[in-house]
Design the sequence.
């Protein structure tokens, strides 16, 4: 049988929206580490059936934001310094290389990355730490997505939620370094925009390693 089907792309499903809502509640501190999530309660709060909530909880467990409890429930993950360090050690193996390849590519979306940094600056000025973290997250993704290696992009995507949780619950609580990081982000973006792969790779490696050193 000869079959030719166009790709469907990724749609935003109800479970995606539920996952986004729960993720925001976790990263904003409304849902605390070790807090057990009750499927029915979440469904009632969000005005949806239990099915998209169940699917969202599965996805958030896969990304690392939730962890199973002894009673077969799910709780918000509590990260220790060592957990966050391991996430950054994984990132430093992949993300600098991805930034270097993105700097070589003429199709890397530097404009979207620049807009993310502008949004981060506005959030920092307004004292919106959650918005700042999410804007920085978009910046990193716009850069590494330009490496033209879907396996690397997927691996880094899988670390996004744990990185975000580590930033808001540990790194920025102990070391409020977002002003320094903003300057580092601008330097990394300039290297990618100017097609300087060695500089982009070096700058991003140093950017990530600075967090690893703090957590050592």
Sequence:
């Amino acid at each position: 049988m000869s079959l030719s089907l166009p790709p469907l792309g990724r749609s935003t499903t109800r479970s995606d929206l539920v996952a986004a809502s729960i993720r925001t509640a976790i990263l904003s501190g409304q849902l605390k580490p070790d807090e057990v999530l009750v499927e029915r309660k979440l469904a009632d709060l969000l005005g949806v059936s239990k099915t998209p909530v169940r699917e969202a909880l599965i996805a958030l467990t896969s990304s690392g934001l939730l962890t199973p409890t002894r009673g077969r429930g799910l709780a918000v993950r509590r990260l220790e310094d060592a957990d966050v360090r391991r996430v950054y050690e994984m990132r430093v193996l992949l993300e600098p290389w991805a930034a270097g390849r993105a700097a070589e590519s003429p199709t890397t979306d530097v404009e979207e990355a620049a807009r993310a940094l502008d949004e981060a600056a506005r959030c920092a000025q307004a004292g919106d730490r959650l918005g700042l973290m999410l804007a920085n997250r978009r910046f990193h993704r716009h850069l590494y997505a330009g490496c033209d290696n879907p396996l690397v992009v997927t691996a880094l995507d899988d670390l996004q939620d744990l990185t975000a949780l580590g930033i808001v619950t540990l790194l920025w609580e102990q070391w409020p370094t977002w002003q320094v990081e903003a300057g580092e982000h601008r330097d990394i973006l300039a290297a990618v925009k100017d097609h300087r792969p060695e500089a982009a790779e070096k700058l991003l490696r140093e950017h990530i390693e600075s967090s690893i050193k703090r957590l050592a």
Q: What stands out?
A: The chain has a mean pLDDT of 91. The two ends are 58 Å apart (CA to CA). Residues 85 and 212 are 6 Å apart (CA to CA).
